[in-house]
Automatic annotation (TrEMBL):
This is F-box domain-containing protein. It comes from Claviceps purpurea (strain 20.1) (Ergot fungus). Pfam families: F-box-like. PROSITE patterns: FBOX (PS50181). InterPro entries: F-box-like_dom_sf, F-box_dom, LRR_dom_sf, TPR-like_helical_dom_sf.
Length: 660
């Protein structure tokens, strides 16, 4: 049989006189089949009792059809045959029929393989491939799947044909792989349904009794430990909440996210908290004015993250001091919108949170009371990340002497400093001095050495641009010798308006560039006073960054508020394009300036120059959808660069992921 098969293969592969060689190959493969011992010297025919396509359409077992269905003499006269030479000869004969375009003949041989050896993958693979050629993909997918199921105890590594079955089925899975997920392993079921909010999960219980029983069983208790309600969730009944908490098992919910639509009653709120002693993550958004926290002295010693939003124009938030005391032993992350009113007191009642690592706090519009910062350093001594604002611009640095005298002791682990500034129309400018003093004090803590990320974002009206230099001027005024400052661990400095003097920029960034830790920084050019026309001042400011040129660690950069003369369309003559081109690993560039609002063609030319001399992946700028940028959009697309609108809000990670 092996000699017949080898001879047939040579005829099949011959390049000349294809049709004649195919016919001769068919004869040789037929001889190989007939020489199999299973025929016992008799002429063995094919059973015609089986209807695989009908069985597949009725969702019945193709394997059982091949194994047991037979009403003719073939089944009584001959047994199954797993002789590999017999199967190979039939498979090659089917392949020859396919090459000749005789798919019906090929289909009969493929069915014959399946009849002889339903436990082998060969028949399923050949039958599925032919069905696919006939554009009967549904039948093909079912045939591949049946072959995989019939060989579920066979390893893919030991069976090349089984590996081919998986490969052939894969592109069809998207269309036909429909399965009740509850039949999957329990850990996969949990993973699938954990993508749903708990109110969406409740709807799934109505699919069937089996779904309701399975999803609420103890094996899936983890699903109900995450009680995250979607923004449009309808408030469940007290009975419904009690049931969900019971499905969560011992310890109740581990995560609670309550949106604005969840207008809970006091009894519901108390039920959620008291039934969840193992609570780890709690977000309370847009809280009703009338809702109060339970005062029962219960301790949540696993709560690590707490986010609270309560506050309306002209009112500070209110949060029971006792609640913080009950979570003080474990709380690591605190996010507040609407500062608790008692934190503004002359003697602030701020709870002591010894393990707190990250603090994000923002105020609400209409509160013009200065917020004292120093008491926070006493209450949260191990803070690593601090994000202030927006809506909290009235910062009180008093007493300044303590910030100077204890700068080595205050927040020695502070690695992230973020300040977002919102300026209402009726801003009272005398606060600028206090704000500036506060930012200076925070940046100079521990001589800047622990800081890894600094971000200052100013959201103000254009006519208030003149206010920013007064805040940014003299960034490090308290040090007679700026060399005492050391920002060697800085990873990023981001500011859309903070213009550093050449000396301050070098003080802040140069050590981190030398240590190759700095990956991102922004350059803001000086404000143009008087007529808005180009001057040599911007060129001089750019040249003051000569020491930063070509830094291999820089991956992201921002360029803001520049105004250069018009240059020829040659990057070698444009200082910005030439400067950006020196950074070999730069991947993201943000570039915009209010001075180009009426000079968009010039800005488009500049960005195009930069595009041609860099290996950027993303460029952020303004007015990217303007028709003036049409050519630039095409050039960016051709080069595989994303051209994005800079004014669209970007998702920024909080807390910031820190490097060791």
């Amino acid at each position: 049989m092996a000699d017949f098969i080898q001879s047939g293969r040579q005829l099949y592969a011959a390049n000349e006189d294809k049709t004649e060689n195919y016919k001769r190959a068919l004869t040789v493969f037929t001889s190989a089949m007939r020489s199999c011992p299973c025929a016992r010297g008799l002429e063995r025919g094919r059973c015609t009792c089986k209807d695989f396509e009908k069985v597949a359409s009725q969702q019945n077992s193709i394997y059982r059809e091949a194994m047991y269905t037979c009403h003719c003499d073939v089944g009584r006269s001959f047994s199954k045959c797993d002789n590999l030479h017999h199967i190979e000869a039939l498979d090659l004969r089917a392949a020859t029929f396919v090459a000749m375009g005789l798919l019906d003949h090929a289909m009969k041989d493929a069915e014959w393989i399946l009849e002889l050896a339903p436990q082998l993958p060969d028949g399923y693979l050949r039958l599925g491939n032919i069905a696919h050629l006939q554009e009967n993909d549904d039948f093909a997918w079912k045939m591949y799947t049946s072959g995989i199921e019939a060989n579920q105890n066979t390893t893919v590594e030991s069976s090349p044909k089984l590996l081919q079955l998986y490969g052939a089925r894969k592109p069809l899975n998207r269309l036909f792989f429909r399965q009740d997920p509850l039949y999957l392993p329990a850990e996969i079921v949990t993973q699938i349904f954990s993508c749903l909010a708990c109110d969406e999960l409740l709807h799934c219980l109505g699919v069937s009794k089996q779904w309701a029983y399975t999803l609420t069983s103890p094996i899936h208790a983890r699903l109900w430990r995450n009680l995250t309600f979607s923004a449009w969730a309808v408030r469940p009944s007290t009975y419904g909440l009690r049931k969900m908490l019971s499905w969560a098992g011992d310890g109740g919910a581990r995560k609670l996210v309550l949106p604005r639509s969840m207008t809970l009653t006091d009894s519901m709120f108390t039920l959620l908290l008291e039934s969840s002693p193992s609570l780890e993550h709690f977000e309370f958004l847009d809280v009703s004015k009338d809702l109060s926290f339970p005062f029962n002295g219960k301790t949540w010693n696993r709560l690590r993250y707490f986010s609270f939003k309560k506050g309306w124009p002209g009112h500070a938030g209110e949060l029971p001091h006792s609640f913080f005391q009950n979570v003080a032993s474990s709380l690591e992350h605190l996010d507040l919108v609407g500062i608790p009113a008692q934190w503004y007191d002359e003697v602030p009642r701020i709870p002591h949170l010894p393990k707190l690592k990250t603090l994000h706090m923002s105020g609400t519009l209409g509160i013009n009371v200065s917020f004292p910062m120093y008491p926070l350093s006493v209450a949260f001594p191990r803070l690593e990340q601090l994000s202030i604002g927006p809506g909290l611009s009235h910062l009180d640095p008093a007493p300044l002497s303590i910030w100077r005298e204890r700068r080595q002791d205050i927040w020695p682990h502070l690695k992230v400093l973020i300040f977002e500034f919102n300026c209402p129309v009726a801003q009272d400018y005398p606060e600028d001095t206090r704000l500036k003093s506060m930012l200076q004090s925070l940046m100079c803590l521990n001589r800047g050495k622990p800081l890894q990320h600094i971000r200052f974002h100013f959201d103000i009206y254009p006519y208030m641009f003149c206010m920013i230099p007064s805040i940014a001027d003299s960034l490090f005024p308290d040090f007679d010798d700026d060399r005492a400052l050391d920002f060697q661990n800085l990873r990023s400095f981001s500011s859309n308006m903070f213009c550093l003097s050449p000396k301050e920029a070098r003080t802040l960034l140069s050590n981190a560039i030398q240590t190759k830790r700095l990956t991102s920084f922004d350059i803001n050019f000086p404000e143009h006073t008087g007529a808005n026309h180009p001057t040599s001042r911007d060129l001089s400011h750019l040249r003051s960054y000569e020491w930063a040129r070509g830094a291999p660690s820089i991956q992201e950069m921002g360029l803001y508020h520049f105004h250069f003369w018009h240059y020829p369309e040659d990057h070698e003559h444009h200082p910005l394009a030439e400067f950006v081109a020196t950074f070999p690993n730069l991947r993201t560039l943000s570039i915009c300036s209010p001075y180009y609002e009426r000079e968009l063609p010039e800005l488009a030319r500049l960005v195009d120059m930069i595009l041609r001399v860099t290996n950027l992946e993303t460029i952020y700028t303004k007015n990217v959808h303007n028709k003036i940028f049409a050519q630039l959009r095409k050039a960016a697309q051709k080069q595989g660069v994303r051209l994005m609108e800079i004014s669209e809000p970007r998702q920024r990670q909080w807390p910031v992921r820190l490097e060791a």
